[in-house]
Amino acid sequence: MRSALLLCVALGAVAGAAPVQPVGPRDIPRLIEALGSEDFAEREAATKRLDEMGLLALAGLRAATRSENPEVAGRAKELVKRVERRAANERLLAPTTVELDATDAPLDTVLAALSKQAGCEVVVGGPRANDTAGTKVTVATGKVPFWVAVQKVCAAGRLRVASAGGFVAPEAMPYNVRPGKLPDGTPVRTARNPNNTVVLEAHDGKPFPASVHGAVMVEAFELPKGTESRSVAATVLQVWPEPKLSWQSNADVKVAHAADAEKRKVIPDFTPAAVPQIQRLRGGGVVVVRNPDGSITVVNPNAQNPLEVGPNFTPNARQSLVKLKTNASSASELTGSVYGLTRSGVEALAAVALDGDKTVSGRGVSGVDLTATPRTDAKGKRFVDVRTAYEPLRVQPARVSDELPGAKLNAAGSNSSVLGVRITDADGNVFDLALPSQQSGFDPSGRQIVARLTLELLDGREAPRAPATVTFWGTYTRSVEVPFVLKDVPLAGGAK
Q1: Helix 107-118 to helix 146-157 angle, to the nearest 10 degrees?
Q2: Contacting residues for 324 by C-beta, under 8 A, at least 6 apart
Q3: What is the Cα 135 distance to its own chain's centre?
Q4: What letters, b where the CB count within 10 A reaches 16 and e where it falls short, cover 345-369?
Q5: Which UniProt keywords apply (predicted)?
Q6: pLDDT value for 18
Q7: Whole-angstrom Cα distance, residue 45 to residue 43?
Q8: Closest by alpha carbon to 47, among 21, 63, 37, 88?
Q9: Contact call for residues 215 and 242 (beta carbons, < 8 A)
């Protein structure tokens, strides 16, 4: 009776509870004020709500960074960083949208239409490429991200992604060196530039677990046979960025949640793989193992306890190894993020406006420092002394042959830059430059390259122009986060 009474009271309390009201723009001032509340829980709740509102709250948060309340200002500054970082991440990962609508059409014809819309080559490869290219497929996608369209084409034609951007999927054979013809005599298209091509090949098995976020698809593959570890189970995450995204390498992977087939939580394993050094003694079957901790173990490989030396699988630059503390053969759910490094296109990383013969300095993108000093020598020759400083692991100066945004190469195929430095007049017209002297080397920290250039202005015009702007052009490395949600992920290894 008491239990029933308590249940009724509890149900009454739930029924009488006021529903949680959604937060809107009108609540932003109140939430910002709550950032400075004396109640820690209230401060934390307001921070969480404003973070969830994202760009909607950004203007108010920027104003709040100037608050006289240090708690409000500090939390607002941190929130501005978070929101801007997420927004930049999503801009970088903005997908190419495409639309396919084909009925009983040759696969290669469908891929030709996809290639035209995506701005990259999508072709059929593999040992059965010529037969597969003529397969009739029906695909209707609506307007979707590029990788979603690829998934639909793969489902319609029983295909898999074999390679993208020159990186090959595990156990794939993407390249067809003997181009054939379709039934109507049309040549089968082949990859002209593997670094800008997505190659699909015939696949008779089940689709691999995949997750698409913007311009990136993440697929999960089982480890190759013989590379499993007995201590943990693992899977390989293959990152497929759109070719337009200059993906340099995977940097890290974070597992937010993992569950086995029975929906039980599985703990990730972040222990670095320590591979022992093995030496076989002459004249016998005994093996000496030099363990990572410095100890030595003598093992007879013919005994009942075979030697484990793995895992020896080495991921390539677009793969990440996820290890889980389980003996399950699959994970019903795996969520998290892959963190990668991408390289920007060529852009202006730093610029300074010249002011007579004064020395001017500026700081630009990715920590680039730029200093310039105009001068004229006794013979009337005009120079600009330029100093650039940047981290070579993050920044690369533009090459002379690189096309710069809004500027065409000259007749000689040059952008008129010297080690990334370009000088223009007040109207944006570029100066031809000579390099009488140059010095470069690392700074005392060993992290930055410092280059000192003496640039002579070559101007054949009767009325000499005044240099107005010095710009340092180049590319830089950006970090990016790709969330993934994968189902029924294959796992290999683990104690059975």
Answers
A1: 180
A2: 232, 233, 234, 235, 255, 258, 266, 267, 268, 269, 331, 491, 494
A3: 34
A4: ebebbbbbebeeeeeeebebbbbbb
A5: Signal
A6: 45
A7: 6
A8: 37
A9: yes
- Residues 136-157 have pLDDT tens digits of 999 999 999 999 999 999 999 9
**Is 470 exposed, middle or buried (CB count within 10 Å of its CB: 0-12, 13-18, 19+)?**
buried
**CB count in 10 Å sphere of residue 101:** 12
pLDDT (tens digit, 9 = 90+) per residue, 411-421? 889 999 999 99
Cis peptide before 311 (omega within 30 of 0): yes
| CA 148/CA 476 separation, integer angstroms | 29
Token pair 């484990």 in the structure block, residue? 308
